[in-house]
């Protein structure tokens, strides 16, 4: 019990330090949106293709040919991490490429342009004709729930929509209004629900008949596309649900589960835990439970602030500072350096920070490293930033550059980072140079001589040569001029006399 109380006190103290201490730099977490869902028989195009979306980013929806989009074609990521509106649905377009009849069209536009699936191809009815209409034959009776009208931008229309049912008996055709009142069309896309005069959810019929009700003909009666949808014969499929931020992408098993079982089991990425509904169920084209499903990141305990330094936290985008994969970097104040522990730590899958915390100690470069055949002297007698260490080579050694393109530098400086700035030298052995010695022989006393040059030799004090070398100093070299003799070389050889000596000694 006492240990539990102590642990709670330490945790509260740590949280207090984190709230009050300025040396922990925190980043505010922002809510992110996951991948938006996709309708069955539809496509979802993200304007910012990614697995995570910032608030304000959008996704656009469209349907495959032959299907009509019900709902908003654009959704926006909101500040709470959810997508605006409901995921749109793609339903059968009963009017797609069906037969069309109309009053006179200007410029020979074909009436079937309004059922070709392209909302940018339009027709314009001639306003000089008194009864202006468009009629689409759906080939058989349907329970029509509504229609979507596309008109050119800037056009304002006023019209009545009728549903004509083909009867087996007289009168053969029965017309009903789709809506009890006139329909105003003042935007490029308008959805009209058919409820009939007595309020049923759908109106039976085979023909859709639209009549221009405007009294002032200041614009053409123009239509670009008509999409008609009815009550489905079977429960609607749901497609893919909205996935929460940091959810794992849908795999093949989940797709088959959605298609055949009408359920979906979301999963989260590594380092995240699923909260909320673990199984989503498809009900009439809508997923139940997806709005409360979340992937919550594993959290690590708050870090204790470092004295004489700070901790910079770098969380994963959209998460809090102490969440999975967040990186903590320790930095020391001027005059201090990191010592011990780990300068960078990461929040792991187990909810623990990797490594151990370091601490900040006064910056010190420590003693300089030894260099062969040299001694150093601390000029200011310390090893803190700004200290200078001067190296001196031993007797018999001289400093030489290591890098030929940089000046000779035998002093090093302690830097703010606590590291000595290296010099540019090494101590090389001092060498002695002996010049070559030349010995001459003369065959005549007058002007004939024959010179023989030997390779450089070391002087021998015991030998008698015409050149005496002083070995104590390389600069003290004395060359003695050879004494002229009249004896030939052959005679010298017969008498075994050394050239350059006096013959009277023999």
TrEMBL record:
Segment forming the signal sequence: none
Keywords: Disulfide bond, Glycoprotein, Repeat, Sushi
SMART domains: CCP
SS bond list: 63-90, 268-295
UniProt-listed Gene3D superfamilies: Complement Module, domain 1, Galactose-binding domain-like
CDD domains: CCP
Official protein name in the record: Sushi domain-containing protein
Upper classification of the organism: Eukaryota, Metazoa, Ecdysozoa, Arthropoda, Crustacea
Domain of life, source organism: Eukaryota
PANTHER family, per database record: COMPLEMENT COMPONENT-RELATED SUSHI DOMAIN-CONTAINING (PTHR19325), LOCOMOTION-RELATED PROTEIN HIKARU GENKI (PTHR19325:SF575)
Chain ranges of the Sushi domain: 31-92, 236-297, 298-362, 363-429
SUPFAM superfamilies membership: Complement control module/SCR domain, Galactose-binding domain-like
């Amino acid at each position: 019990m006492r240990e539990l109380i102590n642990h709670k006190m330490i945790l509260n103290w740590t949280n207090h330090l984190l709230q009050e201490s300025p040396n922990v730099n925190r980043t505010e977490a922002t809510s992110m949106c996951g991948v938006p869902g996709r309708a069955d028989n539809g496509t979802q195009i993200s304007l910012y293709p990614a697995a995570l979306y910032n608030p304000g980013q959008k996704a656009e929806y469209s349907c495959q040919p032959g299907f009509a989009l019900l709902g908003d074609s654009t959704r926006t990521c909101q500040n709470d991490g959810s997508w605006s509106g409901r995921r749109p649905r793609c339903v059968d377009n009963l009017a797609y490429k069906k037969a069309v009849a109309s009053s006179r069209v200007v410029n020979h536009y074909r009436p079937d342009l309004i059922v070709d699936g392209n909302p940018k191809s339009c027709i314009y009815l001639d306003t000089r004709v008194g009864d202006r209409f468009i009629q689409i034959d759906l080939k058989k009776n349907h329970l029509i729930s509504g229609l979507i009208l596309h008109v050119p931008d800037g056009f304002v229309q006023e019209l009545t929509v009728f549903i004509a049912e083909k009867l087996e008996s007289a009168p053969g055709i029965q017309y009903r209004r789709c809506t009890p009142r006139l329909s105003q069309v003042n935007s490029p896309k308008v959805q009209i629900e058919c409820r009939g005069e007595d309020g049923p959810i759908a109106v039976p019929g085979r023909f859709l008949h639209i009549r221009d009700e405007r009294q002032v003909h200041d614009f053409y009666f123009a239509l670009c596309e008509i999409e008609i949808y009815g009550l489905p014969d079977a429960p609607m499929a749901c497609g893919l649900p909205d996935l929460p931020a940091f959810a794992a992408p849908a795999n093949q098993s989940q797709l088959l589960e959605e298609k055949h079982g009408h359920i979906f089991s979301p999963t989260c990425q590594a380092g995240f835990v699923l909260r909320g509904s673990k199984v989503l169920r498809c009900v009439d084209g809508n997923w139940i439970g997806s709005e409360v499903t979340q992937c919550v990141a594993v959290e690590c305990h708050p870090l204790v602030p470092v004295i004489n330094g700070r901790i910079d936290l770098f969380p994963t985008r959209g998460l809090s500072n102490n969440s999975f994969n967040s990186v903590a970097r320790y930095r020391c104040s001027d005059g201090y350096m990191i010592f011990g522990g780990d300068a960078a730590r990461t929040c792991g899958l187990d909810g623990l920070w990797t490594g151990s915390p370091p601490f900040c100690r006064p910056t010190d470069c420590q003693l300089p490293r030894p260099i062969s055949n040299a001694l150093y002297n601390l000029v200011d007698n310390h090893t803190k930033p700004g200290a200078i260490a001067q190296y001196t080579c031993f007797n018999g050694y001289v400093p030489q550059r290591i890098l030929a393109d940089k000046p000779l530098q035998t002093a090093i400086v302690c830097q703010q980072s606590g590291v000595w700035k290296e010099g540019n030298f090494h101590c090389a052995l001092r060498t002695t140079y002996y010049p070559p010695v030349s010995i001459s022989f003369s065959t005549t006393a007058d002007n004939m001589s024959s010179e023989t040059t030997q390779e450089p030799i070391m002087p021998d004090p015991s030998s008698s040569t015409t050149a005496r070398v002083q070995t104590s100093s390389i600069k003290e070299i004395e060359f003695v001029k050879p004494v002229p003799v009249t004896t030939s070389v052959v005679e010298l050889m017969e008498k075994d006399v050394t050239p350059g000596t006096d013959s009277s000694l023999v």
